[in-house]
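Anyone up for a design puzzle?
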């Protein structure tokens, strides 16, 4: 973080990004939830994993590993 950037400006940047890309972000979340459902992971479990600190990358790897176990 640059010294000139305050927490408020970072929050504003994040809010602006979300507003500009809302539909794309919604579609991505919908797709993750769909894939998770296919491998038996509920939306509540996804939230719990994210709350526990798992990264999106690791969440996707986890879902992929469960999916490959189904094949």
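Challenge accepted. My sequence:
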């Amino acid at each position: 973080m640059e010294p000139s950037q305050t927490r408020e400006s970072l929050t504003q940047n994040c809010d602006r990004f979300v507003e500009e890309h809302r539909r794309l972000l919604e579609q991505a979340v919908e797709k993750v939830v769909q894939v998770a459902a296919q491998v038996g992971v509920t939306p509540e479990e996804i939230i719990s994993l994210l709350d526990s600190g798992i990264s999106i990358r690791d969440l996707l790897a986890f879902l992929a590993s469960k999916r490959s176990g189904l094949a």
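A detail worth pointing out: The two ends are 44 Å apart (CA to CA).
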